[in-house]
Amino acid sequence: MSARDPAPGPLQDAPDVPAGIALADATLRGEWGWLQTLAGAAASPEALDAQAVWLPAPVPGTVATAMRAAGRWDDGAPPPLHQHDHWYRIRFAGHGRRLLRFNGLATLAEVWLNGRLVLTARHMFIAHQAEVDLAGDNTLHLCFRALYPWLRTQRGRARWKPRMITPPSLRAVRTTLLGHMPGWCPPVHAVGPWRGVELLDPAACGSWSGVRAELRTRLDDGGDGSVRLLLRFPGPAPLAGHFAVRCGADGSGGADGPLHRLDSHTLAGELLLARPRLWWPHTHGEPHLYRVTARLPGGELDCGQVGLRTVALDGDAAQGAFALRVNGERVFCRGACVSSHDLPGLADTAEAVGPWLALARAAGMNMVRVSGVTCYPGEAFYRHCDEAGLMVWQDFMFANFDYGDDPEFMEAAAREVGQWLVSTGAHPSVAVLCGGSEAEQQAAMLGTARADWRQPLFDALIPRLVSEHRPDAVYVPNSPSGGAWPFQPDTGVSHYYGVGAYERPLADARLANVRFASECLAFANVPCARTLAEHGLTQPLHDPRWKARVPRDAGAAWDFEDVRDYYLRELYEVDPPRLRYERPQRYLMLSRAVVAELMSSVFAEWRRAGSTCAGGLVWQLQDLLPGAGWGIVDACVRPKSAWHALRDVWQPLQVLLSDEGLNGLHVHLINEGPRARRVRLELRCLRQGETVAAEARRELELAPRAVCRLEAAALLDRFFDMTYAYRFGPPAHDVVLAALYEPAPDGNAGAAGAAGAAAPLSQSVYLPERRADALLPAELRAELACEDGQWWLTVATRRFARWVHVEDHAWRAEQDWFHLGPGQSRRLRLLYDGPAGAAARLMPSGEVRALNDGGRPARYDA
């Protein structure tokens, strides 16, 4: 290897690196340092400048993490890390034969121990290990060679080249595509030991250091289950042991059994569970988990948690449909695609993933998708999804490229997929496994022949491994796939952007006959005013950073702000350029409201009785930078208007309204829970947002797991043109409000309505006219109170208030962006959202606004 050609050669580590969950810490301890050099400047550690200054570096971590810690990182202008070599160094003591295990090296990596090259790698997504001899005082160097110079030396024949990924030669190496997609992801390059480095003793008999657990569950047709445990030791395994499976905090409902020695390094055992408690997505039941522990010489080892459930395609669904059944029950899947919880560092910690996934659950999501253009999350992500009752649609990290069938590539892909499947085998949240993202779509849209759309990677290799390791999950070859065109929405899974980038009317959400949208509804979603202010975007529409952070498709002459403006014009009948010029704050308010309206309308359509759709996943959950990104949660972990609107339409107990034209208005009632629910339905038609022109009330019992439909006309004893379809004279109303409440205490369905303080269980609004200025001013009022140290804001209105929103300088309302009926009030808990430790001195102060507040928001101040 010359100094000018430092590219790693073939993989040198053994292919049988143990996978599974790491149970006992075996981290290599010491102080890591990081050094950047010119590409190819040093062929080995001894060629490094002895006077160079090494900066402290966290491991596991990335070069971006080290630079951020050193104050050398700028989120707005990340440096091009792939142009340089990056060295890591650690000194440690030890003698004798050891195993060095590297759980993630990004990406062209060399490992040098005491000046000798012991390992080379060019695969970010698999673990590597090397057997080494320690010499007392040891120095370990990791060198991550510059990727871009190496890629320029690569040649290969591909049937198509993706447009969205730069450079297209990334096909030659296994690394994340994050940072390589101009227009939607900042150019943050993944370089460094992004997962942990372990030092193991292969001679230590029964040592817990470095032991890994492989867990697998099975649920049979009769409702009984089993849990299989393999414990893999770096050294000789104990001769035997015991393991136990317990459910819940009280440890009930479990079993005990023996562990026997399977081979010199492995203990194995299997336990049967009679009628176990099932794991459910939280929208449909409790995500019950069982704790697995092993009793070994020396004590008890916590082996993690498992859940038992079945996931299958709905065999009764119509031709072309894609619908999931969990534990035999059909589930409407809703949620969002996740990009990265920590783009610079790719951290695998509860602190990194917890806040985002907590908001996903709070929004009513029951599924999140990890797209193939991102990166495999760590154990903390899946563990949190297990506990939260969130299903995971997991793409493997293959996207857009023509991967071919080169034997070396296919062998490396098999190791990647196999290691991941074994490591995540314990997680009941993993429900759908997908070969990758947009490979079939890219081939079709770039004009290749139909016979070239499919690839053996997705049609043979990955499904074989899934069948072997995770037969309890549903496999999808690609996202999207299934139709005459791979991206056809009426067959299989699709990426639906009819309402969105393709600027189709809202009616297209039904016309397209969507079956399952594994991506949908991407808009440039405007964050709250405080996020903009904190990041210097006080004049956002005139700040060059604003447009730089608006997502766009590579090569397109438009961006996703243009898409949002199109719907502002079509739905709200405003002139976006003039409004932005003359009334910028009104423009931002309408921009936040219109995406809330679009998303809630589309999901109301897809969840209604009779819909062909069985799921939709919004693109995306979070922003990567502060600004008008795709995320429904901003980069400061604050929900945007879209998040609040989706939460209202994603509830397990739901009322929805649909305009059926001359057939009038239909009321759809959903109860996804396992128990029947008794509710009171109230339907009111309002004139001038205040006067009741027609109303109806009815008490109903909703069966468990049920979706039913009522004709609104059947609830009234006289004709009323709710959808203003017949147009006999001027409209008699401007708002229809449907709400579900707890039953009246005396069981009297004809009791007075819930106008006042009682919050509805669910609410849906129909507006015959959607113009931004169609309604009279709401006349809002706001009252602030502090009870037991907790701040509460009560919002009331004289007339119907459309898209009520709270703006506070340091607090945020737990509920926001909702509709409020005339004479009603809503009591909102305020959550502190400012600098740590300042809650006691930063009192709530702000305004309550609505789309129709007439320019007169309700102010409040402590």
Can you describe this structure?
The chain has 862 residues and is α+β, with helices and mostly antiparallel strands. Helices cover 16% and strands 31% of the residues. The protein contains 14 helices and 41 strands. The longest helix has 24 residues, at 584-607. The radius of gyration is 29 Å and the shape is globular. The protein starts with 20 loop residues before the first strand and ends with a strand. It catalyses: Hydrolysis of terminal, non-reducing beta-D-mannose residues in beta-D-mannosides.
Quick summary of this structure?
Keywords: Glycosidase, Hydrolase. The chain has 862 residues and is an alpha+beta fold. It has 14 helices and 41 strands.
List the helices and strands and how they pair.
Layout lengths: L20 E2 L10 E6 L16 E2 L6 H7 L14 E19 L6 E5 L2 E6 L6 E17 L2 H5 L45 E4 L11 E8 L5 E8 L7 E8 L4 E12 L2 E8 L16 E7 L2 E8 L4 E3 L10 E3 L2 E3 L1 E6 L11 H13 L4 E4 L8 H10 L2 E5 L11 H17 L6 E5 L4 H7 L10 H14 L4 E3 L17 E3 L11 H4 L5 E4 L8 H6 L9 H5 L11 H13 L3 H7 L1 H24 L7 E4 L22 H9 L3 E7 L5 E7 L5 E11 L3 E12 L3 E6 L23 E7 L20 E5 L13 E8 L2 E8 L3 E8 L2 E3 L4 E3 L4 E8 L12 E5 L8 E4 L1
Helix pairs in contact: 3-4, 5-7, 11-13, 12-13, 13-14
Runs in which pLDDT lies below 50 for 5 or more consecutive residues are 1-15, 749-756
- Lateral arrangement of strands in the main beta sheet: 1-9-10-13-12-11-14-15
Structural class: alpha+beta
Total strands: the figure is 41
> How many domains would you count in the coordinates?
6
- The CATH superfamily of the largest domain is known as Galactose-binding domain-like
Content of β-strand: 25-35%
Average pLDDT reading: 93
Q: What is the general shape?
A: globular
Helical content (DSSP H or I, runs of 4+): 10-25%
Main beta-sheet strand count, sense and barrel state: 8 strands, antiparallel
Q: Label the CATH architecture of the largest domain.
A: Sandwich
Please compute the radius of gyration using only Cα atoms. Answer: 29 Å
CATH class of the largest domain: Mainly Beta
Number of helices: 14
Straight-line N-to-C gap: 70 Å
